[in-house]
Amino acid sequence: MDTRTRVAVSAMLALGLLAGCGDDAPAPTAGGPAPQATGEPWYDEVAPASPGGTTGGAGSPCPVPVSFPLADGWTAKAVEPPKGELAELVGEALTKRGATTVRCEVDGREAGGGFLRIWAADSPTVTPRAALEGFAAGAGETVAGAQFRDLRAGGFDATEMTWMATNPLAEEESRNWALAVQSAGQTLVFAVNEGLITERADVLPAYRLAVRGLAKGE
After folding, report:
1. Which of 69, 104, 200, 212 is most buried by its number of CB atoms within 10 A?
2. Average pLDDT of the chain?
3. Per-residue pLDDT tens digits for 56-108
4. Where does 72-155 show beta strands of DSSP type E?
């Protein structure tokens, strides 16, 4: 190997090492497979759940401009704020978070799971990453260890975020995952989290199934 070749190889290796540094996971090429990172914090080894139907699109229980598969035994329903003056105040606290508004909830309690919630950013121009950052900070919890990665989610380019959140009242720490995509002029956030009665094995399979099967809604 001549001197010029050795210098070129060394430069390529140095660039590769530098690209591996930083808090964010490396982004795959456009249209490529989702990154695979076993263990903390992404747990990509957790397989998607078995499908039991689809939802999304106009006229569905989840009125958003995408469709996605539902895990077997999980059911979708639209989320609307309660009626009445006091109910509206309470409802906004439950349906608004970090400049997003919840559109629907996928309930997996009867199947032994938790909840998958789909939120829409209030601003149509917000980027997926900015929507995720606002969403994570919008619950009034202490956010730590945030990581991001870009990937394909079904037919969409997407940004995914994971973070630890601590509730200041209950002093409960939980791992959260959320993925954001843009479709038909909206930025949508799909979010799940661990909790006191739910673990990652309860929520990640339904979440993985939904986001990996995202398609344009009608």
Report:
1. 69
2. 84
3. 998 999 999 999 999 999 999 999 877 777 676 677 778 999 999 999 999 99
4. 75-78, 96-97, 100-107, 115-121, 142-153
